[in-house]
Design goal:
Layout: E1 7-9, H1 15-34, H2 38-61, E2 63-65, H3 70-78, H4 84-97, H5 100-104, H6 112-131
Antiparallel strand pairs: 1-2
Helix pairs in contact: 1-2, 1-6, 2-3, 2-6, 3-4, 4-6
Length: 136
C-alpha cells in the first residue's frame, strides 16, 4: 500500500511568504549558533528547510505538505522534479529533519559540531530553494 501525502492547496504566489519565513529562520539559526545556543540553532535550521520546501511546493505544485510526518514534505518536494539536484536536496532535507527530535525532544543537548553541520546543510538547502524559484 502506497502512503498518500496529505496536502493543502496554496496559491502559487504565496511561495514568497514561505521563502521569507525560511530566510528569517536562517537568520535566527545563525544568531543562535553564534551565541552558543546550539539547540535553538538546530531547531531553526530544521525550520529553514521545512519553510523552504513549502516555498518550492507552493510555487511548483500549488500545494504543500499538510500531514503530521515531515517526511511527507521531503517526498512532495522530490516529486517536483526527478533531477539529481532535487533528489540530492531531498536527501539533505531528510538529514536535517533527523536532528529535529534531538534538538526539540530528546534528553541530550545538541553539540556545537551538530549545530554547525545542520546549519551548513540548511544554508545549502536554502541556496537550492532560491535557485529553483523565480527571481524576486
Amino acid at each position: 500500500m502506497t502512503h498518500r501525502i496529505r496536502t493543502q492547496e496554496t496559491e502559487r504566489n504565496l511561495y514568497v511568504v514561505f521563502l521569507q519565513k525560511s530566510e528569517q529562520f536562517l537568520k535566527a539559526a545563525e544568531q543562535m549558533h553564534e551565541s552558543g545556543n546550539y539547540n535553538a540553532s538546530a531547531a531553526n535550521s530544521v525550520h529553514v528547510c521545512i519553510s523552504g520546501a513549502d516555498a518550492l511546493c507552493t510555487w511548483h505544485l500549488g500545494r504543500r505538505a499538510a500531514g503530521e510526518k515531515h517526511s511527507d514534505a521531503v517526498n512532495l518536494m522530490k516529486s517536483i522534479k526527478t533531477s539529481d539536484e532535487f533528489l540530492n536536496n531531498g536527501a539533505r532535507f531528510s538529514r536535517v529533519l533527523a536532528v529535529k527530535s534531538l534538538a526539540e525532544y530528546e534528553a541530550r543537548l545538541v553539540f556545537k559540531k551538530d549545530s554547525e553541520s545542520v546549519l551548513a546543510a540548511a544554508v545549502k538547502f536554502l541556496e537550492f530553494v532560491k535557485r529553483s524559484l523565480p527571481e524576486q
